[in-house]
Design goal:
- It contains ten helices and 17 strands.
- The chain is of the alpha/beta class.
- The chain has two domains: 145 residues, 3-Layer(aba) Sandwich (Rossmann fold), CATH 3.40.50; 203 residues, Dihydrodipicolinate Reductase, domain 2, CATH 3.30.360.10.
- Strand 4, helix 4 and strand 5 form a beta-alpha-beta unit.
- The longest helix is centred in the last third of the chain and has 20 residues.
- The two termini are 34 Å apart.
- The relative contact order is 0.15.
Length: 373
Amino acid sequence: MSESICNWGILSTANIAMKNWHSIALSGNGRVVAVGSRESARAQTFIDACQSSVPVTHRVDAVEGYENLLARDDIDAVYLPLPTALRTEWVIKAANAGKHVMVEKPCGVTAADVQRIIDACSANKVQFMDGVMFMHSARLPAMRAVLNDGISIGPVRRITSHFSFHAEDDFFTSNIRGSVGLEPAGCLGDLGWYTIRFSQWVMNFEMPVEVRGRILQGVPRNDSTEIVPVEFQGEMHYASGVSSTFFNSFCAHNQQLAIVCGALGDLQLNDYVLPFYDRELSFEVSNHSFEMDACRFNMARRTRRFSVNEYANNAADAQETNLFRNFAALVNSGQRDDHWPRITLQTQQILDAVLTSAQNGSEPVPLQDTAAI
């Protein structure tokens, strides 16, 4: 293990935090020292479950109350998977306590929330990052090399992404992702963050100039005063003429499709968010050719497969482990990287705009055209 260790506190006992207990344990430069919950018994139950699955040899304390966890002087950084509506308050409190913060997405209810978060982290000189795991996969640099080689894809013209899962019926009445009070953007916040982020990554974080959104299906709940989006489609347009479309749903089968179509070919992958369980991550590049010979019209298949040696999920080189390792490396170095908060704010701004469009009859919403960040 590295001599420099980032001591983590986990602020909440959400299910995703169990996966990331494992990520921190595998990171080599971080360890969980405390888990906070509103009740210490709940925190202890979480710790016991994690220890039975992925045991660590050091002591991990159950802490009652989020304030008490933030008050500890043996915690360098906190991982915060609280519901979206609560994140702004607690990220700011964590920053004011001098803790570096990794937060689940969406990071706030609005871009104004995210700006407040960034301002607090900047003022307290702490690192901020959202928990988008695929941004830390070795597959992305391999894909970037193909996108940039000038011949495999050529100039990008269209980006398509799809992220969905089919929820059980009781999901819409019991899960917080169906509550406008806790997760007001519904599937757009939970799943759309990834589809928007993928397009922005392809575009080197150029801001779109116009977006549109449409709620394809919404669900009312007794604890909500508004419809919560459970199926959503969005469209983004860039000054360069590139367009991007995305689809998110709690009602469609498991799908994580992403396609980048260019003038010369296309790049495609089917597991860009949560990779298929394997020892390598792959993508395909196609340069199909239309061939005409008198009466014979043929489309010739020309596909190449690319892969990187990276285990998917629960491994030392998996993307989620890289996420926590990279964050801890920044903490341990004493340096901050402002790229991460900038792209979080941009993602939230686009999410806000497509939701505004959807709530106003899918009218186009203009956005400022900014240079790549």
